[in-house]
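pls read this stuff:
=====
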Amino acid sequence: MEYFVGTFEYALDEAGRLNVPSKYRKVLQELGENRLMVSKAQSECLTLYPYKSWKKQIADKIAELSHSRPNANHLRRLLGTTTAEVLVDKQGRINVLSESYAKVGIEKNVLIVGAIDTIELWSPASYERFCQDTGKTVLEELEYFGI
C-alpha cells in the first residue's frame, strides 16, 4: 500500500474548494476511496481520513462503547460535531466547510501534510509554529516508539 507522504501548499479556490494533490489522489484510488472524513481531532489542524479507515479505526470502535458511559457519550458528541464527510470530485477537489477552516486558522493558503495514513490541513503559520515547538528529530520519535 502507498501512504500519504509529502507536503504541499495550495490555495482555496473562489468557491472554497481545495485541490487534493495528485499523489494523494493515487493513494485514495488504490484504497478505492473518494470519500474523506474531515475531523478536528487535533487542536491546530484538520485531519482527513479515508472513509473506510475512519470507520474501522474510529467509528466502529466508538459505536461499540456502552451508551451508559457518560464519557463514551461525550466522545460520540465530540466526534459527531467535529467531523464531516467530503467527496473528492472529478477534478480532484474537496469542499470543506469554511467554519472548519476557520477553527484552525486557515484563510486562503492551506498546507497539506501527509501523515502516513491520514492527511492534515494546516494554516502555514500554525504548522511553522508546531515544527518549532516540537524540536524532536524523526530518529528521536522513532526511538520513542521503539521503531
The beta strands are 7-11, 17-19, 35-39, 46-50, 83-87, 93-95, 109-115, 118-122. Residues 7-51+83-144 form a domain with the Chemotaxis protein chec fold (CATH 3.40.1550.20). The first helix runs from residue 22 to 31.
